[in-house]
Amino acid sequence: MTTAIHIPGYLAGTWDIDPIHSDVSFVVRHLGLARYRRSFERFSGVIVTADDPFASTVTAEIDTASFDTGLDVFNRHLLGSDFLDVETHPTATLVSTGLRQHGEDYQLDVDLTLLGTTRPITLDVEALGFGVGIDGAKKTAFSAATTISRAEFGLTYQSTLANGNFVISDEVRVLVEIEAVLRKER
């Protein structure tokens, strides 16, 4: 049996992700130079912290059209059939399949569905804590990150510059900062 690292204030229960105090972002290399970061504005999810922390689960849904590059022409291209194809696939989903300790932190195995393709990925997770907000509500927070390949999800559109650099990298870094509010204690 695996022994969990002590997390101060750990509380078993059902938690709703608070989109106001959370962030779901992606980072790609642009032109082989800069790191280009954007956040999805609309997402939801539920975290169930179990009595045995390693039996905890997460489900989440992201509105893939809910980011803004600041330029309408880029938005139309990224939301169109060359990339996210939001008309056909308006959401990305994440369903956890397992949690394990990794050093002082954790790794969360999930099935990520994007563009109708489901692939297993692993998120590196840091449990930030459990506590009470200024409104008296019980809260918890986590940070998570992973790197995925666009091509593995069917995002194969690519344009190359004269110097050979790709306009947008295949590698996408996914960064998640989650604060959740207790719905029901176990």
TrEMBL record:
SUPFAM superfamilies: YceI-like. Residues 14-181 form the Lipid/polyisoprenoid-binding YceI-like domain. InterPro entries: Lipid/polyisoprenoid-bd_YceI, TTHA0802/YceI-like_sf. Pfam families: YceI (PF04264). Belongs to the UPF0312 family. This is Polyisoprenoid-binding protein YceI. It comes from Actinokineospora cianjurensis. The lineage of its organism: Bacteria, Bacillati, Actinomycetota, Actinomycetes, Pseudonocardiales.
